Amino acid sequence: MSAARPSIPPETARQSLARRLREFLPRESVLTDAEDLRPYECDGLSAYRKLPWIVALPETVEQVGRILKLCRREHISVVARGAGTGLSGGALPLEDGVLLSLAKFTRILEVDPANRTATVEPGVRNLAITDAAAPYGFYYAPDPSSQLACSIGGNVAENSGGVHCLKYGLTVHNVLGLKFFTMDGELVTLGGKTLDAPGYDLLALMTGSEGMLGVIVEITVKLLPKPERAQVVLAAFDDIAKAGAAVAAIIAGGFVPAGLEMMDNLAIRAAEEYAKAGYPVDAVAILLCELDGTQEEVAAGIAQVRELLTRQGATGVRTAKDEAERLRMWAGRKAAFPAVGRLAPDYYCMDGTIPRKHLAKVLARISALSREHGLPVANVFHAGDGNLHPLILYDANKPGELKNAEELGGKILELCVAVGGTITGEHGVGVEKINQMCVQFTKQELAQFHALKAAFDPDGLLNPGKAVPKPARCAEFGRMHVHGGKLKFPELERF
Amino acid sequence: MQKPFVVSLSNHERRSKKRVMQVKQGNDISQQLADAVKAATQEHARLAITGGGSKRFYTGQPEGEPLDVTGHRGIVSYEPTELVVTARAGTPLAEVEAALAEKEQMLGFEPPYFGPTATLGGAVACGFSGPRRPYAGSARDFVLGTKIINGKGEILKFGGEVMKNVAGYDVSRLMVGAFGTLGVLLEVSLKVLPIPAKEITLSFELPADKAITAMNAWAAQPLPLSAAGHVGDILYMRLSGTEPGVRAARAKLGGELVENGAEFWRELREHQHGFFQDAVPLWRLSEPPAAPPIELPGKWFIDWGGAQRWLKSDAPAVTVHEHAEKTGGYAALFRHATKNGATSHPLPAVLATLHRNLKRAFDPDGLMNRGTVGMI
Predict the structure, then answer these.
(1) Inter-chain contact B83–A251, Cβ cutoff 8 Å?
(2) What is the number of other CB atoms lying within 10 angstroms of the CB of residue A46?
(3) Distance CA A342, CA B90 (A)
């Protein structure tokens, strides 16, 4: 941390650093004017904003190393930023640090069809990898909803998921190699095109580390052959509990769906109005279940899943009759966030994960909390892997309403922890959920995280203040890890 | 050697109606183990974490007093509809696999036992994966959470029992393949998979170079592959999935049906295949799967669709490492006839420094499993 220095260094310090950066970066790649800095003041979580001190836009790997070496020597903090689509404020800038944008690293370095890998720079968009792999019949599996815009470097930093991760895994399961710089400016290579590498699994550790351990400059991902066929079934339910039971029955039936998504009525109506996906707007909940594989597998599986859903009490079951209808069904789901966003001036997206068996109970409790706080909540849910996305609707212009929404969100996350889940499934902790980290982890566990961080970055210069709270912050938050017997939501069953 | 659990091929009808099974059995000695670690810190003693001992040929004997974790055993929770099992580290691996098999589920990474005493903790600490690995994932891919004792004797919990969890650093997966050098594993939560309804093995007569090409060409197509190996000019391919899916893939690939296919893959996984019955040093090469045959003297067994290659060779270590690096891979001396303890591929200096720093972060006094696999 930069505790030894004044919190806002004088303008001369800023101009002096800018000058030194410009010794090896083009003039226009170092931004210091307020109007140039403005686009970098927030990421996808726009409720948190801060104007960066300096923005650096390197173009070569060597320049990234030099920026880090310089900052390390001068004891200046660095925040790495990709496409800025993150939803937890992980790329929120510092008022006394360098924002290191990797936006210019957009080259696909290699597609290796024989080994089924792609090696890319961190600024390459998620979907661009699939586009580059498509001529070979391959695709890159993790598909966050923001895949048109989000970059692969950010995906690795956040361990991004998507609707297909139940079957194909998260980013961590699809990355084979990384090159990253430590804060010392040392280039480290992990893995490659092999399935494992000697030593500790630093590849897993770097994935989802939220820019706290290093700055990633190259990524090798695994490519998968495009399935021969994908087919989706839409089932409507008049009861959330029945929909939840149907999810469990599909899994118990031995199916590993490529996607298994649930939406509640508020989300269904919003998505239908927005995307005309053909959803039944009177349903209490819908399930979208996609199977993929060979023609034969999918045909047999879909018939079994349809039967199973009907047995579980679905009021309607519909199979997409062609690819256009399948894509339309998914378009509704993928547009759920913006669709719900139209219902209110602002919305706040949560990301807790719970064991699936608690689904009905947790949704009932969320609905009660929503009434208590007087704020509507729409639920969009990666049902297959228990990842909830409650969307809290509010109006930031009404005094106190953002605070109310944040309080409601905090309670939802604590509820997720109480049933054995986690505060974040795929969006990351960033600045947003840092208080709830005090609920999920003990003081010793947080201390272990800090020790781990120090193994990479002893002075704490990379992305300070994010992801893992300092003990003082938890004391202030006043909810340090609730121990057995004193848990919140005592009415809920736990294991 | 006791025959480890073999995947049964029964169909979905046999699935039990009871979906949730809460198992409360076994023995929890977390606190005693944590106290023993704390005592060791005070006495500046070193601890050799000891499970079933089935993989000592690989890990070697760490320095110090044994810390026996086999008493810490039992399945803590298993819920088939959640696709998650949590068990104490000292639980015999066979016990975990048997419990899953009862519910038509399995560990997706097909863990090698290397002996009947193998424990879950040992399997995770060593991080080995069987023939299914390239198609289903590795040991670390299936780990969802761990409870550990760090070098200060603190009991810490990371990850959990849910599929997606990005709160905090992924310490759980860091424990996989760390050989107990970063902490004592107490509990592990793993994602599990349904046992495929149908599994068959096909064979094809092909030399190594053509076999590598074929394995990779098939992996590039949407086929239900679950293993691919090559030995003695025969390529073996395993198909797993639904009956119709496997039938269609078989029609597409051709080849001969192997009668005792399950036995072949088990023998490969456990190094009980005739290939491994030899006193010549055994190397493991981790390679890009499509790398052509490597020019080193000796005999090869290609596994993981080309990504894991076993080499019996007297070639000097430096030569083997050189060849592995040239093809974008890594080599470890996996087994000697005469002494315990593998030798892993040397780490570049900057990585070695990060390893030392991490070791210190988890085990500041350097108590645990010193001298394991030449790691730390």
Answers:
(1) yes
(2) 11
(3) 53
Q: What pLDDT score was predicted for residue A164?
A: 87
Residue A483 within a domain: no
Boundary (domain end) residue, out of A197, A225, A253? A225
Note whether B141 contacts A173, CB cutoff 8 Å. yes
Last residue of some domain: A199, A225, A251? A225
Out of A336-345, A385-394, A442-451, least confident range: A336-345
Give the pLDDT band (50/70/90) at residue A7: low
Judge whether residue A488 has pLDDT over 60. Answer: no
Our CA-based measurement puts residue B324 at a distance from the nearest CA of chain A, in whole angstroms, of 11
| Residue A492 included in any domain | no
Picking from A231, A189, A162, the residue whose alpha carbon sits closest to that of residue A382 is A162
Q: Are B285 and B313 in contact (CB under 8 A)?
A: no
- Show residues of chain A in contact with B355, CB under 8 Å: 199-200
ipTM value > 0.90: yes
Answer whether B4's CB lies under 8 Å from B55's CB: no
The shortest CB-CB distance from A201 to any of B173, B248, B304 is to: B173
Range of the domain at A362: 344-477
What percentage of chain A exceeds 70 in pLDDT?
Answer: 95
- Determine contact, residues B19/B81, Cβ cutoff 8 Å: yes
Q: Does B372 touch chain A (CB under 8 A)?
A: no
Mutate which: A195, A202, A388, A449, vs B, most B CBs within 10 A = A195
- A97 and A112 housed in the same domain: no
pLDDT > 90 fraction of chain A, expressed in percent and rounded: 81
- The nearest alpha carbon in chain A to B141 belongs to A173
User: Within an 8 Å CB–CB cutoff, is residue B310 touching chain A?
Assistant: no
pLDDT at B376: 56
Domain shared by A189 and A270, yes or no: no
The CA distance from A223 to B295, in Å, is: 28
Nearest CA in chain B to A449: B169
Mark yes or no for CB contact A194/B245 under 8 Å. no
| pLDDT tens digits, A215-231 | 999 999 999 999 999 99
B197 touches chain A (CB under 8 A): yes
Q: List chain B residues with pLDDT less than 70.
A: 1-25, 374-376
Tell me what the pLDDT averaged over chain A comes to: 92
| Counted domains in chain A | 4
Cα separation, A165 vs A126, in Å, equals 14
The class (CATH top level) of B12-194 is: alpha beta
* CA of A297 vs chain B CAs: smallest distance (Å): 5
Nearest to A200 among B104, B288, B358 (CB): B358
pLDDT by residue (tens digit) across B77-105? 999 989 999 999 999 999 999 999 999 99
Nearest CA of chain B to the CA of A234: how many Å? 21
A81 close to A101: Cβ distance less than 8 angstroms? yes
Same domain membership, residue A127 and residue A44: no
